[in-house]
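Usage

Read records sequentially. Each one opens with the input sequence:
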Amino acid sequence: MAARNGGPEHYRPFVQAYGPYIYKTVYAVLHSPHDAEDVTQEALLQIYRSLPSYRMDGLKTWITRIAVNKAIDFKRSRARRPEELVEREAVDRQSADLQADGMLAAAPRPAAEAEAIRREELRHVQAMVNELPDNYRGVVTAFYMEEKSYEQIAAETGLERKSVESKLYRARGWMKRHWRKEDFE
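and closes with the structure output:
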């Protein structure tokens, strides 16, 4: 692959070939044209930076995984910043109104492959989370899988906010000691 061994000028054909696919994949997760464009750029940058470590097998699966992970990370970060979300929703509503009026092209449909990969990754992650000790599993599931805030978890479990933070901190330490990066590839 020329993009792997060459400089940025060799990456342009890759972007032209896979950019639309990555956009569709990201859009399937975010459902926002504006956010999908931003995250697609981030995913393409991440792919470019990661090319030296790419093992030359399953290119489409590899780039899909990067794109889906970038989209999920973006979605999580947006959930933790509700004030920006309100502004973004207004922009998305305007875009949806323009689409309804036929002024914008219809948004791409989610790729079946991306959805299948996402579901499989979620099943795998859930299986890994189920291996956590009982005292960590609940807060990890609530925080990472259900995307709840520390306050929500504290209210639902009857714990103090600091206790929730502490459990998550210890759970992350446990995961670092017991899980390998390869377990998620």
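Summary fields computed downstream for this record:
- The chain is about 75% helix and 0% strand.
- The first helix runs from residue 2 to 5.
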